[in-house]
Specification:
about 675 residues, alpha+beta, single chain, Phosphorylase Kinase, domain 1, 4 domains, Killer Toxin P4, Chain A, 5-stranded antiparallel sheet
Length: about 675
């Protein structure tokens, strides 16, 4: 180096020590908002659900081909959905990375999740698997574009100190993120952002939908998950909630990679600062000129950034307001109008051949059910409420418009209602295999339910009940869950019936007291049957009874010991205590079954029917226990005292009761009983 070069270098070096703090702040700002590369944890698997088994080698071959193509395509674009094979061995799959990942990070996660899927679900025909950074789903059924808000949750143990402020800011943040992900310009249906709820505490949030959903379906899916936060994760500083087609996450630290343009909250204003103490301007003309140039450039860049951020915040706030008004107006119009659900009486008379006896499927305490065909060819089940039903016309309309919005693959779908000429008719989708009890308790047909189908029914009912308790916009307690209210479609997928006219709860209300007990003795929790105390744990008790019936193939009202008159709960408990649990298993389940699944199901059933409601697990925990054998189960306590089976429907003050004792050999025919409802 010559002397001139050395002299120039000596002149430039002091400039770096004399740079204004503003330049340093700008440098840090750029670094902080540059997407960072995460070191992906190969053990970041949070949840998987693999309920169905298959022995088809063709299906497994198609699945393996699909997984390879999915992960390969998704690692390039961040999302892929595809199919492989032909029916009945066709496989449908979706793979997607979180929207803030780089392609290298996406590829790493997808490779991990592909290997993980073959380990946790080697024989599965259906799989949901969630990592922190990517998801993978496949099924032997077409699920593309179908909202699935059934979820798994994981919350932090640390609690919020300023809960009202936290909930307010979290709600606003999630509302903004949902709108941005569903209706914004994001190509991955993804949004992330932050909000301050105290001067020193920040909430960071992230939401995303699978890209096979429409804008409206994405918003609906996210809304369902957000509404579950108050039930699952209240007062926690962070939580992950995974739905089949959408995810949400929030925490007290920055856990995502995002640019400043994607954040919904602007950074704090930059205050002017003085040069560092002891710093002196250079005496050289070149150095002073360079410093001035740098200062001018920095000030210009900061001013431009501040202007861009301000304009972005204004734009996002206006767009949020417009979207919210549009959504609210649409929601109000939808809720306020029952016209779309109303069907003509003449149409239903033609559909059912004027309610002909040969179309009658069954009859319950509130009326008969008839099979029919709509003009467009759809098969329907029409419930004709009895004339003395206590359900008022206005009350019926108000509740049905809400119930029609509840959609889940394990709930029977309500299609419409007719209220003409003193008739009150409810129209449901037709479920070909009718109710569970017509097969499970029939000596000739029960062999149709091998253990694989029974375990799928248990899992499906659990997920449907979880949706009613925690995932739907309304907290719904069924109050009459039993085998005759679980319908089976052509593929033996369970669908809970008569959830719509159960007692509806709003907000975070989880329990109450009623003077009007409705339901079926034997399935009713003791605190509800005897004292009128109702909660989600009442349904958990009924679910436990149902699980034990499915595993044993025995009715709860059967007498297995003629001298002692034991009911199913006592019978199961005594075998459990004596270590003879395997003797409970229904021989009709077949020879090919998972012994661990059966014993685990009985264990879970006993946990659900414990006398103390506090000791019973909630449905979200039940779903986790059923889907993962790694979750340890505590020992159950003695089941609650169980009143033997009588059908009960109490009117206004519990005056009328139907006390016919059913025989254990008689199977009901799609007895879709409707829970009576009092206006609140």
């Amino acid at each position: 180096m010559n002397k001139t070069g050395a002299r120039q270098l000596t002149m430039v070096l002091p400039l770096f020590s004399n740079l204004p703090k503003l330049l340093l702040l700008l440098f840090l700002l750029i670094i902080l908002h540059t997407p960072r590369t995460k070191s992906l944890d190969p053990d970041s698997l949070k949840y998987y659900y693999c309920p169905n088994k298959t022995d088809s080698t063709s299906f497994k071959a198609n699945r393996d081909l699909l997984l390879s193509s999915l992960t390969s395509a998704a690692s390039i674009s961040g999302f892929s959905n595809n199919t492989k094979g032909q029916s009945p061995n066709e496989v449908y799959g979706v793979a997607q990375c979180r929207g803030d990942l780089s392609l290298d990070e996406c590829r790493t996660c997808l490779n991990t999740i592909e290997k993980e899927s073959l380990q946790v679900c080697s024989n599965g025909s259906y799989l949901d698997i969630f990592h922190d950074y990517c998801i993978l789903r496949y099924s032997d059924k077409d699920f593309f574009g179908q909202v699935d808000a059934s979820y798994y949750r994981d919350r932090t143990e640390s609690k919020v100190t300023q809960l009202p402020q936290f909930n307010d800011k979290l709600g606003n943040l999630m509302d903004s993120l949902m709108t941005t992900a569903a209706y914004g310009d994001s190509s991955r249906m993804f949004a992330a952002g932050m909000a301050n709820y105290t001067s020193s505490d920040t909430i960071y949030g992230l939401v995303q939908c699978t890209m096979d959903l429409s804008n409206e379906e994405c918003y609906s899916c996210l809304s369902s998950l957000v509404s579950s936060i108050s039930y699952c994760c209240n007062a926690s500083t962070g939580a992950r909630v995974y739905g089949g087609t959408c995810i949400i996450r929030f925490d007290s630290y920055l856990f995502y990679n995002i640019t400043s343009a994607d954040e919904l909250s602007s950074p704090p204003p930059v205050a002017p600062v003085s040069p560092p103490s002891g710093a002196t301007p250079s005496n050289t003309t070149g150095g002073g000129g360079a410093t001035k140039v740098i200062a001018i450039v920095v000030i210009s860049v900061v001013a431009a950034l501040a202007l861009i951020v301000a304009l972005l915040v204004i734009y996002l706030r206006r767009r949020k307001a417009v979207r919210r008004n549009t959504i609210n107006e649409s929601h109000t119009e939808d809720i306020g109008s029952v016209e779309s659900l109303l069907l003509d009486l003449s149409t239903l008379r033609v559909a059912t051949a004027n309610f002909a006896e040969f179309n009658k499927l069954g009859e319950g305490g509130f009326g008969a059910v008839y099979k029919g065909f709509l003009p467009d060819g759809r098969e329907i089940a029409v419930k004709r409420l009895s004339r003395h039903s206590g359900q008022g016309l206005g009350e019926l309309k108000n509740e049905l418009i809400l119930v029609a919005k509840l959609q889940h693959k394990n709930l029977v779908r309500l299609l419409g209602v007719c209220v003409e000429e003193q008739e009150k008719l409810l129209v449901y989708e037709f479920v070909p295999n009718r109710s569970l009890d017509t097969i499970l308790f029939d000596d000739e047909r029960r062999s149709q339910l091998d253990w694989g189908k029974r375990y799928k029914i248990i899992n499906g009912v659990a997920r449907g009940l979880l949706y009613l308790h925690e995932d739907s916009q309304l907290k719904i307690i069924h109050r009459d869950l039993k085998a005759s209210n679980v319908l089976l479609d052509v593929e033996m997928i369970p669908k809970i019936a008569d959830f719509g006219l159960a007692r509806l709860f709003g907000g975070d209300q989880t329990q109450g007291i009623t003077n009007r007990v409705v339901g079926t003795f034997g399935y009713m929790a003791p605190e509800y049957a005897m004292r009128g105390h109702i909660s989600t744990k009442s349904d958990v008790f009924s679910f436990g009874v149902l699980v034990l019936e499915i595993v044993t193939g025995r009715r709860n009202n059967g007498y297995f010991d003629s001298e002692q008159g034991e009911d199913l709960l006592s019978y199961t408990w005594e075998h459990w205590r004596a270590g003879r649990t395997t003797e409970l298993i229904d021989p009709s389940s077949g020879n090919h079954y998972s012994r661990s699944e059966m014993l685990r199901s009985i264990h879970i059933g006993l946990l659900c029917v414990q006398e103390d409601p506090v000791e019973r697990p909630n449905m979200s925990m039940v779903v986790v226990m059923l889907s993962s054998e790694t979750v340890s189960l505590k020992a159950p306590s003695r089941p609650a005292f169980c009143i033997r089976q009588r059908s009960i429907v109490s009117e206004t003050h519990g005056v009328r009761r139907n006390q016919r004792l059913r025989k254990s050999t008689v199977a009901s025919r799609n007895e879709v009983s409707i829970t009576d409802l009092e206006p609140r």
